[in-house]
Amino acid sequence: MTSRINTILIVGGTTGIGEQLVRRFHALGKKVIVTGRNQANLTTLAQELNGLETRQFDVVDFSTLQSHVTGILNDFPNLDTVLINAGIQKSFSFFDPSSIAAGEIEREIATNLTAPTLLVQAFAPHLLSLASKGTPATLFVTSSTLGLLPMGLWPSYSASKAGVHAIALSLRQQIAFAGEEAKKNFDVVEIVPPYVDTELDKEHREATIAAQGENAFPPMPLQEYIDQFFKALDETEADGRPKKEIGVGMGAMVVQTWRDSFGKVFEQFGMAT
């Protein structure tokens, strides 16, 4: 699939999985634009990666989100791939109000679900236009294993990532009614990571490991995840199309389980998934 990507925007690409995706796509010779909240991190990446384009903004500043999208599309009219990756994770107990402030829950859901939904709305018409003219276009959205297999230690994170999964399905169903060229050229790919060793859970890792006790499981090393991700990225469906989900490790297991169960239900109703 990497061969169909020429210019890619990675939203939320200055740390963790996002940063490594930026580095790998850049190493593959792709034109890469990366966004993030931290200008210092963006500057460091740009200094290390020749030709990297950066845009600094916060995806939960909804009053300016559309203007940032418009600016990117004006600067890169041939943008054929958008990867929405920004996310934060909180761990708390519903029975302990002191474990998290309400505002933190609001920001987590805004970052993980509201912002991706608005970004899909903002970029989808552009990608549809390219696809309708015969140019392959791809929209990646990052959900999580926890979006398909929620766990009580991360309640609002699991719920928000389940929402991202639903957005991916909904967009595919809308593309199915957008014309033959769009159906042929516009792909929506859901990225379903397992537990990966990044800073996503740095605030509560020790506490959640302790809460799991002997059932605690270690995170996958980041570079191992990236290597497996790019291997899976170039695998295809039986019809030769890009894979609808890229699941690695536990992510692959939950994706296959979903496909074998709820996916069959959608097929019975003749709905795209």
TrEMBL record:
In which domain of life is the source organism classified?
A: Eukaryota
- Signal peptide feature range: none
What are the UniProt keywords, alphabetically? NADP, Oxidoreductase
Q: What Gene Ontology cellular-component terms does the record carry?
A: membrane
Q: Name one GO molecular function term.
A: oxidoreductase activity
Concerning InterPro entries, the annotation shows: NAD(P)-bd_dom_sf, Sc_DH/Rdtase_CS, SDR_fam
**Do the record's keywords include rRNA processing?**
no
Keyword Oxidoreductase listed: yes
Its biological purpose is as follows: Putative oxidoreductase.
| Record family assignment | Belongs to the short-chain dehydrogenases/reductases (SDR) family.
- What is the name of the protein in this document? Short chain dehydrogenase
Which organism encodes this protein? Paraphaeosphaeria minitans
